[in-house]
Amino acid sequence: MSLDYTTEQQVAVAAVRRACHLTSSVFNKLVKNETLVKGDKSPVTVGDFAAQAVISTILHNAFPQDLIVGEEDASDLRAESGKEMKDRIVALANEALTEELALGDNTNWGIGPGQEKTDAEILDAIDRGNHEGGSTGRMWTIDPIDGTKGFLRGEQYAVCLSLIVDAQVQVGVIGCPNLPIDPAHPENGTGCIFVAVRGKGAQQLTISGANPTPLSIPPTTPESLNFLESVEAAHSSHSFNDRVSSLLNITRPHTRMDSQAKYCALARGEGGAYLRMPTGVGYKEKIWDHAPGQILVEEAGGIVTDSRGEPLNFGLGRTLGENYGVIAAGKDVHPRVLAAVKQALNETKAKA
Ligand SMILES: Nc1ncnc2c1ncn2[C@@H]1O[C@H](COP(=O)(O)O)[C@@H](O)[C@H]1OP(=O)(O)O
Ligand SMILES: [Mg+2]
Ligand SMILES: [Mg+2]
Ligand SMILES: [Mg+2]
């Protein structure tokens, strides 16, 4: 543990890097019976479970006292019917954990050749993500594959990790294996990791965790402003975004992208604002879906609030209980978007 979070950043980047390697290699090999549908009807793949096992194992070895709030749990894999999937997940997780050491890796984190884990250790690592959250102490959030639907389509997804201390996000790391390294030059290939530490700025790294490039959100002109939004219409209201963008006289079409890759794109100046309004089905946003994105955008000089202008509250448990919607944007744009969102909300209320 270090007060300036240097070790935490190193561990988090190492964990996300290994998990990204796992998810991108599993995508090409995924077969039909390697995806389950969860109770909330969302998909989960062997990649989600194995990536959570890898990240949780590394965190537990590096910081044994820290609590973890992870999206997945291993109950389906502990059942007899989950045996085949469990065997595959254990193999994938061990493959990733035992890969050769690379830049900044440390064998004390439970990684490197010869550090195979047993089935029970892998399942326990997944279940260590069962912390209920709260407003005090240190806890990590893991979303092993954010945007699983994008992952399954071969589009954007993100491996997301954050450290929250006393309800404030202090470290955020987001790995985006399918995101162009340089949006101006898509021919240069894909795969990047984004990292932010509170008070120390935001950076883009290569997918192997090298070459840090500082990020800051550029000022937006009326012509360059547009919204980043979900691909899935069920996850956020597309029609609300259309109304807000017409109130702001935005002419550029929205940029649709799955996962927290939207926060990453915003942090490097692609799209002026990320707007995520509920679709009205009572879904509560999860802390692991916003904590790393929030610190990344804030450290790149932007502002992240809910639709009422309130800060996101990461201290209320596994969900952002009291927040309604999310607006993330550069400092110059955020007040204008917030005003337009309030106006659109008032119009909706007046109609109801
Ligand atoms: N009904 C829902 N409303 C809002 N977000 C949802 C809903 N169902 C799942 N999600 C989560 O929304 C996020 C994806 O958002 P987007 O559509 O913007 O990419 C993911 O975290 C996804 O979970 P998951 O991590 O399982 O993919
Ligand atoms: Mg999911
Ligand atoms: Mg998610
Ligand atoms: Mg997920």
From TrEMBL:
<dbReference type="InterPro" id="IPR006239">
    <property type="entry name" value="DPNP"/>
</dbReference>
<feature type="binding site">
    <location>
        <position position="145"/>
    </location>
    <ligand>
        <name>Mg(2+)</name>
    </ligand>
</feature>
<feature type="binding site">
    <location>
        <position position="71"/>
    </location>
    <ligand>
        <name>Mg(2+)</name>
    </ligand>
</feature>
<feature type="binding site">
    <location>
        <position position="289"/>
    </location>
    <ligand>
        <name>Mg(2+)</name>
    </ligand>
</feature>
<dbReference type="InterPro" id="IPR051090">
    <property type="entry name" value="Inositol_monoP_superfamily"/>
</dbReference>
<feature type="binding site">
    <location>
        <position position="146"/>
    </location>
    <ligand>
        <name>Mg(2+)</name>
    </ligand>
</feature>
<dbReference type="GO" id="GO:0046872">
    <property type="term" value="F:metal ion binding"/>
</dbReference>
<dbReference type="Pfam" id="PF00459">
    <property type="entry name" value="Inositol_P"/>
</dbReference>
<feature type="binding site">
    <location>
        <position position="143"/>
    </location>
    <ligand>
        <name>Mg(2+)</name>
    </ligand>
</feature>
<keyword id="KW-0479">Metal-binding</keyword>
<dbReference type="InterPro" id="IPR020583">
    <property type="entry name" value="Inositol_monoP_metal-BS"/>
</dbReference>
<protein>
    <recommendedName>
        <fullName>3'(2'),5'-bisphosphate nucleotidase</fullName>
        <ecNumber>3.1.3.7</ecNumber>
    </recommendedName>
</protein>
<keyword id="KW-0378">Hydrolase</keyword>
<comment type="similarity">
    <text>Belongs to the inositol monophosphatase superfamily.</text>
</comment>
<dbReference type="GO" id="GO:0008441">
    <property type="term" value="F:3'(2'),5'-bisphosphate nucleotidase activity"/>
</dbReference>
<dbReference type="InterPro" id="IPR000760">
    <property type="entry name" value="Inositol_monophosphatase-like"/>
</dbReference>
<dbReference type="GO" id="GO:0000103">
    <property type="term" value="P:sulfate assimilation"/>
</dbReference>
<keyword id="KW-0460">Magnesium</keyword>
